[in-house]
Amino acid sequence: PLVLGIETSCDETGVGIVRGRELLANVIASSMDEHARYGGVVPEVAARAHLEALRPTLEAALAEAGVGVHDLDAIAVTAGPGLAGALMVGVGAAKALAIALDLPLYGVNHLVGHVGADLLRADGGDLELPTVALLVSGGHTSLLLVRDLTSDVELLGETIDDAAGEAFDKVARLLGLPYPGGPRIDAAAADGDPEAIRFPRGLTHAKDLAKHRYDFSFSGLKTAVARHVEQAGETLDVADVAAGFRESVADVLTAKAIAACRDFGVPRLLLGGGVVANARVRELATQRAEAAGIALRIPPLALCTDNGAMIAALGARLVAEGHPPSAEFGADSTLPVTIVQT
Ligand code: ATP
Ligand code: MG
Ligand code: FE
Question: Where is substrate annotated to bind (predicted)?
Fold first, then answer.
């Protein structure tokens, strides 16, 4: 089926078009620059930006795919989780389009969409299941066990405070680096010694593991960096702090993901979310997966960050499996990952 996907859960306005598992278009407009002076995504600003960007993004996607709206078989839209106002813009637009074009509409889960991105990989092989999925972005840090993309997604753990990307952004601020902090810290860390400063690893001690084996925590790490910056004063070595911080995040993310693969006997790990761009996260994930005999899958970065194509791909899978369209639904900012379709 030819499916249009609309994604507006955070600061990317994404419109994608797929035919089954074939990627035809993936157009993204980001309001990231508008959030830079606030040091993080401002919900009101994001919602307004979606409203302005949605129509041109839709038109660009149709042009890129070389199709017209009347060729479409279905529409899929991110129903949650995400920023309520931002989600509402996408859901409202999708409903209007579906009514005007008399098309079936599928409200889908953003996090499961990140897993669905793997359907679009170039080699054409199908998603191999079950798989563990680690999704790390500015708003999420979640470890999933996916047994079936449309009917069996389990949340193993998630952050109990800041998301990993959020931690990168906050620590960058402490170091005087501009937003978004992830790429800046990644670059600064390349010149630093990851061993020079040993920062804490959140929720990795025996007493934490009993209850939070697959959960993450980055606020203690952020506080440790803040304390270090304060004490270092003039002698602050930004590269060493960036490297030590990055090492802590990459260590915990990959250790917990690999542990989940081992515990559940699942020899596959899929990564998603903007933090996947991080050089050390990729490197450590690659090394540890190889050592553990786990097949690691990292979609191309344009499909790892928020985009409409992954939403279209998940929608196309729902259509292909014969799931009925979503009944009346709204934006659900806290939609649990177990609910693949609203
Ligand atoms: P959501 O959480 O809803 O998916 P988001 O906009 O926060 O939305 P993305 O756009 O996927 O998610 O990711 C943005 C985050 O990724 C930012 O926090 C950014 O700092 C981080 N990031 C980007 N590049 C890197 C990098 N090289 N290293 C670490 N973090 C990075
Ligand atoms: Mg974003
Ligand atoms: Fe996302």
Answer: 135-139, 169, 182, 186, 278
